[in-house]
């Protein structure tokens, strides 16, 4: 999944916590300074400091104020670069929970710095998570916090200060966020089989095959993906339509709220028919009737329908074959339209803002089915690939 594109949709509200310290007299950025109190090591407050694996910057002053100086645990050295938009980037070595940054600004008692904090999982696409100013009152570290998120890279971009356009940082560290995960269940098929699901509804094992390839594509992540195949006449449960599906008894209770992430790819040979072909559905606990939440293909469109038959088509997009489609689906489960809602991100973009609608049938719970379920009038073989399923309670954990 293009997680970094999806992350770029969010700008989080942030809180500032400033740590006090004594003032020092300063000099210009192009000249080193050394004072007794600046030689002291970095001290942080309200921050469990992370030690970066590496650091790089957009440039430096050419006089020895290089990026590595911001990691030497000394306040008498610094990284400096002239020009608004100068940045310094810290590689934490692996993705981790990050909730802030502790920064000791060079001459931080004389001027307030305008800056932005951004995070990234791949070192290529960055998401701004904090924008503000330093206090201009201390050379000690100030801690700036934001909602915890998973990231490997932390970037500080400086837009000058109240005296000039220099970016100058004596020391900086990322702050560790909570390590607690809200992931409820994961189905990435990296077990090499279907054991992450509760059961199968299939006519034979080749219809729901865990495979190392997705047609001409690789799995969306890891080594494995699911290949779901349906041929006319496939009816393993003697019900309406033809199907081969995996089942997970998620049984989301009324009032619960979850985020779901998964990726689906339609084979280049996937049939174009003006009838229903479901690839993901939340079925009700009752035995008959259309499910309250269903993702399906109709003709040359991918659709999301809420409310059963006929229900309401709340989102649709053109069908594209031979390419991974990435979904993040946010749902509050309720039979009351004033309480239940759906929200959808597709291929990294918010395509369905939160819409209040009944997502359950009265007195029933839902459970998940994934694979391919379609009208028995379809004669061509249908093939769909699925990968990288995550069910969690927060957006951070599905990203």
Structure characterization notes:
This protein is mostly beta strands. It folds into two domains: 3-176, Galactose-binding domain-like (Jelly Rolls), CATH 2.60.120; 183-398, Jelly Rolls (Sandwich), CATH 2.60.120. Helix content is 2%, strand content 48%. The chain is built from two helices and 24 strands. It has helices at 3-7, 395-398; strands at 14-17, 49-50, 54-57, 79-82, 86-105, 113-120, 127-133, 142-161, 166-176, 183-187, 199-201, 208-211, 225-230, 242-252, 257-266, 276-284, 293-298, 301-306, 312-318, 324-332, 341-346, 349-356, 366-374, 382-392. The strands form three sheets. Strands 1, 2, 3, 4, 5, 6, 7, 8 and 9 form a nine-stranded antiparallel sheet that branches. Strands 10, 12, 13, 15, 20, 21, 22 and 24 form an eight-stranded antiparallel sheet that branches. Strand 21 (341-346) and strand 22 (349-356) form a beta hairpin. The protein starts with a helix and ends with a helix. The model is unreliable at 1-28 and 30-39 (pLDDT under 50).
Low-confidence segments: 1-28, 30-39
Rg over CA atoms: 26 Å
CATH topology of the largest domain: Jelly Rolls
Specify the CATH architecture of the largest domain. Answer: Sandwich
Rounded to the nearest angstrom, the distance between the terminal CA atoms is 9 Å
- Name the beta content range: over 45%
Q: Estimate nothing, just give the exact number of structural domains.
A: 2
Largest sheet: 9 strands, antiparallel
Structural class: mainly beta
The CATH class of the largest domain turns out to be Mainly Beta
Overall form? elongated
- Counting DSSP H or I runs of 4 or more residues, the number of helices is 2
**Average of per-residue pLDDT values:** 89
* Share of helix, binned: under 10%
- DSSP strand tally: 24
């Amino acid at each position: 999944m293009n997680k970094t594109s999806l992350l770029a949709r969010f700008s989080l509200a942030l809180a500032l916590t400033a740590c006090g310290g004594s003032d020092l007299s300063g000099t210009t950025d192009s000249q080193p300074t050394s004072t007794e109190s600046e030689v002291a090591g970095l001290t942080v407050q309200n921050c469990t400091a992370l030690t970066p694996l590496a650091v790089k910057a957009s440039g430096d002053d050419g006089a020895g104020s290089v990026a590595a100086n911001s990691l030497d645990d000394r306040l008498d050295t610094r990284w400096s670069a002239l020009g608004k938009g100068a940045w310094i980037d810290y590689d934490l070595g692996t993705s981790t929970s990050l909730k802030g940054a502790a920064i000791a600004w060079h001459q931080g008692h004389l001027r307030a710095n305008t800056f932005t904090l951004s995070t990234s999982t791949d070192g290529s696409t960055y998401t701004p998570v904090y924008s503000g100013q330093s206090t201009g009152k201390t050379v000690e570290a100030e801690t700036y916090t934001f909602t915890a998120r998973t990231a490997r890279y932390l970037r500080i971009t400086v837009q000058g200060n109240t005296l000039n356009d220099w970016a100058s940082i004596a020391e900086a560290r990322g702050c560790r966020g909570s390590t607690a995960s809200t992931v409820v269940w994961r189905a990435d098929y990296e077990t090499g089989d279907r054991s992450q699901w509760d059961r199968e509804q299939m006519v034979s094992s080749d219809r729901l095959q865990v495979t190392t390839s997705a047609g001409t594509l690789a799995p969306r992540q890891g080594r494995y993906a699911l290949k779901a195949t349906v041929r006319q006449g496939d009816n393993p449960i003697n019900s309406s339509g033809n199907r081969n599906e995996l089942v997970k008894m998620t049984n989301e209770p009324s009032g619960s709220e979850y985020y779901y992430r998964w990726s689906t790819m339609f084979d280049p040979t996937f049939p174009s028919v003006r009838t229903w072909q479901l690839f993901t559905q939340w079925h009700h606990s009752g035995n008959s009737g259309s499910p309250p939440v269903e993702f399906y293909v109709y003709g040359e469109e991918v659709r999301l329908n809420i409310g059963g038959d006929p229900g309401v088509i709340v989102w649709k997009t053109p069908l594209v074959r031979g390419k991974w489609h990435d979904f993040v689906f946010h749902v509050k489960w309720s039979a009351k339209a004033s309480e239940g809602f759906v929200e959808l991100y597709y291929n990294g973009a918010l395509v369905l803002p939160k819409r209040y609608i009944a997502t359950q049938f009265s007195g029933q719970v839902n459970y998940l089915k994934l694979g391919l379920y379609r009208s028995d009038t379809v004669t061509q073989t249908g093939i769909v690939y699925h990968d990288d399923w995550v069910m969690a309670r927060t957006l951070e954990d599905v990203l």
